[in-house]
Amino acid sequence: MEDLKSPLLECPSAVTVRRNPPRRAKAPFTTTSNSTPASKSLLKRKEISSFPLQEILQCQLVPPPLHPTSSSTSSTTTTTATNNNHSEHLRVFLRIKPLNSNNSTTTTTTTTSKQVKGKAALPALKKKSLKKTESDSLCLVVNDSQSVTLTPPQSLQDAKRFKSEVYDGFTQVFDTDSTQIQVYEKVMEPLVVDFMDGKSGMVAAMGPTGSGKTHTIFGSPKNHGMISLAFAHIFGLSTSSYYISMFEIYSERGKGEKLIDLSSSDGPDLFLQQSSVRGLQEVMISSVVEAEAVIARGMLRRATAVTNSNSQSSRSQCIINIRGAPEMADGDEVLPNNAVLTIVDLAGAEREKKTGNQGTRLLESNFINNTSMVFGLCLRSLLEHQKNPKKPLQKHFQNSLLTKYLREYLEGKKRMALILTVKAGVDDYLDASFLLRQASPYMKIKFNVIEEEPCQKRNISKLPREEKPKRRKLSDPDAYKIDESKSGKDPRLETELVSVPLQQQECLHCSISSSRSAKLEINERLQLEEYRVEINRLKRNEQVMLKFSKALWNVLKQYKSKLEETENEVRGLKESLEKENVRYVELEKEKEELMSCSRYFKQQSAESSDIQSCENGIGNGGKCINDDDHSNGDKKERDSWPSDSIVSSSIEQFLVENATCSATEQSTVLGEDEMTSHASEVSPNEESGSVDRCNASIGDLRHSSSKIQKEKQQRRRIPSPSMLVKERNDLETDNEMIKDSQILPTEKAGSVDTCSMGKIDSENISSCKSLSEKKPRRRLLPASSVLLREINDLDLNYENERPMGSSRGGRKLAADGIGRTQGSVSLLKLLSNLNL
Ligand SMILES: Nc1ncnc2c1ncn2[C@@H]1O[C@H](COP(=O)(O)OP(=O)(O)OP(=O)(O)O)[C@@H](O)[C@H]1O
């Protein structure tokens, strides 16, 4: 039973039941010291890991080696395959504009010159202190070459929506100290090298207004921008000529978009056809100076305006294209590769509050922001499509001229790099945050670049001038698609033939046939490339499915083990439930026992009231002892007294209730003491008789008392014997006190007489009760007062006196002084016999 009384099973003192408790995840099953094995296992239970879907979808296809037998060959093949694949991530750079651009420009210049001389020129300490004061007013801090931390200003930190964020994974982060050359080396140089190798590429600068896009792309006479540095690089590597074109997309007063040629002022109007600009003039350049002159002219024509954020804010998207010009080699014109290097300076996103734009500027601002948004949407859609091929590539590019023109880049078909420019001031937090949130995911974009093949060498010196626009068409991959089913000839070429003079047709036919064979070859290659891409796609799908099934298998295994654990736990809980049931039954039994006990005690208490009446009966018994007529009745009454056990139970009940059990004993002792103490005053015969009777009575009571003691010990519910002894001692002490108290000799004699006349029972019990109630004087009062009154009334006609009433009313009669009790009548008779 004891082990069942575990803390777990204890009933709580109070239970609060909520009517509508808030929905919460279920609290884990807590256990106590006697927790079941199932619950222990529950504690150990591991969470099922999340399904690695993203990981699976991002899996890269590793092309298998073509010649597995030779390891060296295989490695070479792998490298080649990787090179051919040209699948690479979009490179995203971040450039932070110095807080005070004027100072910083000087600082940058100084740093650059010092870099040439040696970096140790600036004392490290001064540099540190400068950085510290700067960092106090910065919202953007560079962590390392690839990550930054954006911290909101204190005013925004209070609104808990804003908190510090770390943006990681940039291709390179350029600190405020970075130079144009450093930026060029990382951003442009790879693109220029690729361009020289015949691969197209694009770099676009995007960011909020005044953050340094134009500065980065075009630079200044002192700090050359990416374009100038690129030309320097290109012309440093080759002596060839190049074509350069520069145009802007501008929206005048927000009324539609316009293409404006910046490289020439006298050209026709421009219009966009698919992804090429019709009517755009290209300027041939052969040196850096020429290139810079064209650019400078274009910059002068570019739409700019003064805003609160920038004294020369660009109001348009500016695009510069560089492509190779044909060369003359041994009288033959050698066509260059089709690679185009595109540099885009986007107009910076503007916030009306900051720029303070109104009217026309505001309309321009709307256009700029709209274009930036569409540009961002295109990249976003590309990213989502790449993440989940089921998601179609949205045609956001249709929403602006810029995105239409850059469609191939925005669809991941050509290489591209992004330079994000930001201002790191506390005031620029919102701009920086918007840009970083928008553009940082673009790092995951991948390009599946289809390699452009260099054009075949051909003799174009004999070709007419009209061939020029045709050549530009060929750069478009669509141009290579020949509908041979309709006619065996290219209709465009046929049309061209009509316009060519007759004497040149022969030459042209030769040229056409050679170009046709070249086109067919390219077409085949394109088809092959398509197959290769398709095979790659299928292989990737296969790998994804393989990984998916593996991951699914793992997750299912985890679920299975979890299920087993749960089953164990359920088993354990069932066991504990059974135990609880057993305990419940036991407790029910116990409760039944206690109920029966309580019923018993109730019964006993009812019987104790009977004992009271019995005690009164004992009072009457005294009368019967002296009265021979009533001796038989007395005996009957005695017989009808409750048995010892009942008496003892009743007395025990009294003991339990701290009542007068001990008083009974005391009364016995008191009677005994009284008898012994006053024995000398009584005649020997009477004495012996009364003593015998007293002894008998005392014996009965002692017998009862001993029984009580036994029952007490049996039930263990009553005070220990030592306590009883103590009580007894107390009672004896009380008794002594009574003896010592002022008891009249008549009272003493009365009491002795009462005893001698066998009245010990009722009188003594009542006096005993009185003693137990701590009223020692009053205990003897009834007998003594009665005696006194009787003696005073000696002259009354006692002969006629008869004891009146029943045994129960005896005491009352004595008290009112009219009737006589049995004792008083006997005493009066005695006294009259003695002639007193
Ligand atoms: N890294 C830098 N170092 C020194 N000066 C800079 C830097 N970046 C920008 N500046 C200066 O800040 C000013 C504004 O820069 P810029 O015109 O390039 O901004 P923007 O982003 O092109 O703005 P908008 O989008 O309005 O055209 C210019 O005077 C420029 O010289």
Automatic annotation (TrEMBL):
Residues 1-40, 63-119, 460-493, 619-644, 671-698 are annotated as: Disordered. Residues 521-597 form a coiled coil. The keyword tRNA-binding does not apply. Residues 29-39, 677-688 have a biased composition (Polar residues). SMART domains: KISc. Keywords: ATP-binding, Coiled coil, Microtubule, Motor protein, Nucleotide-binding. GO terms for biological process: microtubule-based movement. Residues 463-493, 625-641 have a biased composition (Basic and acidic residues). ATP binds at G207, P208, T209, G210, S211, G212, K213, T214. InterPro entries: Kinesin-like_fam, Kinesin_motor_dom, Kinesin_motor_dom_sf, P-loop_NTPase. GO terms for molecular function: ATP binding; ATP hydrolysis activity; microtubule binding; microtubule motor activity. Residues 89-445 form the Kinesin motor domain. Residues 69-80, 100-119 have a biased composition (Low complexity). GO terms for cellular component: kinesin complex; microtubule; nucleus. Belongs to the TRAFAC class myosin-kinesin ATPase superfamily. Kinesin family. This is Kinesin. It comes from Thalictrum thalictroides (Rue-anemone). The lineage of its organism: Eukaryota, Viridiplantae, Streptophyta, Embryophyta, Tracheophyta.
